[in-house]
Design brief:
The structure is a single chain. 11% of the residues lie in helices and 30% in strands. The chain is mainly β. The chain has a domain of 108 residues: Beta Barrel (Thrombin, subunit H). The strands form two sheets. Strands 8-9-10-13-12-11 form a six-stranded antiparallel barrel. The chain has a six-stranded antiparallel beta barrel with strand order 2-3-4-7-6-5. Strand 3 and strand 4 form a beta hairpin. The chain is globular and about 50 Å long. The N and C termini lie far apart (39 Å). The N terminus is likely disordered. The structure holds arginine. The site of arginine has 14 residues, from strand 12.
Length: 255
């Protein structure tokens, strides 16, 4: 998902000397009980994206995790702190991503997965609430992002669930930092000085604040680089889209 940033990379080759070594990046281990809505999405049996439980049979994730992927090769692991074991592996009934998703710009990077079975909620498996349509969140609000993604840029996957806390970044500031590549369908979060971020294979996972999922891990320039915050799908902009798709599925799967 770094294609839109090729321009930036060329213009800033000095960044290649910068390699963040912190752990997500700069975070810490948590138990699934603390993020019971977090799921791992597996392709050919290997973790490759995050997601979140928003209904007892629906997972929210990024469009770029679903493009060109057959549902038959996907599985969802729920209820486990460990990336490679535990919880339950569930087959996928259907996937769908936003009709406006744009691979070149990462615009409308949002998708849904319908599970083959209905989940039973317990202390390891639960839903996350969503913001209202167009609800806004102030810059500086402390958010949490989690996943089993890389612990360092081009580093290793996490074996156990990681999370990190980062403030929301002012939209104008972020848009300037990313040379206009960040639009109103996106929100940014990160520390100005870098060091804390989501990274590859955290994609599709939840950015939460005040007990709501306000973002979906979408893209960033490398990971945890100062002045290049993580960019997230602005869930509040897609609340009605989500509700409509869930409703349409309920209607069409009723016989
Ligand atoms: N697109 C990446 C993925 O597929 C996620 C990148 C998030 N990067 C970041 N610096 N926050 O996993």
């Amino acid at each position: 998902m770094l294609y839109p940033l090729v321009v930036l990379i060329g213009a800033a080759s000095a960044w290649s000397l910068y390699s963040p070594t912190d752990r997500i990046i700069g975070g810490y281990s948590v138990e699934i009980e603390q993020r019971p809505f977090q799921v791992s999405i597996l392709l050919y049996g290997e973790h490759f994206c995050g997601g979140s439980i928003i209904r007892n049979n629906v997972i929210l994730t990024a469009a770029h995790c679903l493009v060109g992927v057959s549902k038959d090769y996907l599985k969802v692991r729920i209820g486990s702190t460990d990336r490679t074991s535990g919880g339950k592996l569930i087959a996928v009934r259907k996937t769908l991503y936003n009709e406006n998703y744009d691979d070149a710009t990462s615009g409308s990077d949002i998708g849904l997965i319908w599970l083959d079975e209905i989940l039973e909620f317990n202390d390891k498996v639960g839903m996350i609430s969503l913001p209202l349509q167009d609800e806004t969140f102030a810059a500086g609000l402390i958010t949490t992002v989690s996943g089993w993604g890389l612990l360092a840029f081009e580093g290793d996957l996490a074996d156990t669930l990681q999370e990190v806390q980062i403030p929301l970044v002012d939209h104008e500031v972020c848009s300037r930092e990313y040379r206009g590549l960040v639009n109103q369908d996106m929100i940014c979060a990160g520390d100005d000085e870098g060091g804390k971020d989501a990274c590859q294979m955290d994609s599709g996972g939840p950015l939460t604040a005040v007990n709501k999922q306000i973002g979906i891990v979408s893209f960033g320039y490398e990971c945890a680089v100062p002045h290049y915050p993580g960019v997230y799908t602005n869930v509040a902009h897609f609340r009605e889209w989500i509700e409509n798709k869930i409703l349409e599925d309920q209607i069409s799967s009723r016989v």
